[in-house]
Amino acid sequence: MSTKQTFNKDRKLDKRKLDPSEIQQNFNNLSIKLLCCRYWMLDEWEWNDLSVPFWRLYYNSLPGAEIVYEKTLTSLGKDSIILIPPHTSFSTHLKSGLTGSARERVSGRKMGKTDSLQLMMNMGKIDHLFIHFNLGFPHDYVRTQIYSMACTTYLLEYIKCIKEYCLKDSDLFPFLECLKIQELITHVLLELPESIWEARKLDNRINNTIQFIIAHLPEKLSNEMLAERINMATNSFSRLFKVNIGMSVQQYILKKKVELSCNLIHHSNDSIDELAYVCGFSDRLHFTKTFKHVTGITPTIYKKQFILM
């Protein structure tokens, strides 16, 4: 075959449609971003009014832990998987009552291969598998709730494999282990009521702006620049944003920056100064002041009290 014939054949192949249908399909962009997957032994688990910007999946083999959400108590144990959407404010309880200090007490360590569940139960301790993840906008902004679902034999096999890998001394999760974690998450998400995914109807321009803000959060984002992107006058854009979101543009940006910093405190080893820089604050003082205004405590206290080291 001559060079010209080969070229003409390649051109015909390039024009061939990969999809035989004339109807173009649009798919919802779904991405599970894993933040952490850990298996711990806990002897204290007293949280008050905890709200974080990521999904949490919990599974305990041993009984004794409880979650309180809007005065409703949910027990953790071997027969159920708990799923908690981002921004859900809840409390947890293990040994002592929920009264007392306004802040939580958390004590525990990574589970080891030689740890005995029977001995732990006799000592009043629990095992605790927790997976943190994000789904992105708008799926990280669903209705807040505590979801408890039956742990089937099928899901239990995945949990068993995930726990076994967490017991190893490696922080690197291979491709197949990540697939197992995502498979578990996917099956649990499919058990949620369909109504949870019905996103609040936002003006398309505001929807576009929110996605831009999240993608460029550490940058300096002025109302003028954001308005210009969507061909709106600054005042009109600011009013439309507040009507759709319920707060001003800059209040929203600061709230998202604090949420990003909370996420990084949970899932990175960044210092307070590094967090201030990464999240787009002018300096540590500005970051600390804003963080305390939003959460009620400083990032230093948050880092000490909210993280199992």
From TrEMBL:
Q: Which GO terms describe its molecular function?
A: DNA-binding transcription factor activity; sequence-specific DNA binding
Q: Which UniProt keywords apply?
A: DNA-binding, Transcription, Transcription regulation
- Outline the extent of the HTH araC/xylS-type domain: 207-305
- Signal peptide range in chain numbering: none
Has UniProt tagged this entry with the keyword Manganese? no
Q: Which InterPro entries match?
A: Homeodomain-like_sf, HTH_AraC, HTH_AraC-typ_CS
Name the UniProt record assigns to this protein: Helix-turn-helix, AraC type:Response regulator receiver
Q: Which organism is it from?
A: Arcticibacter svalbardensis MN12-7
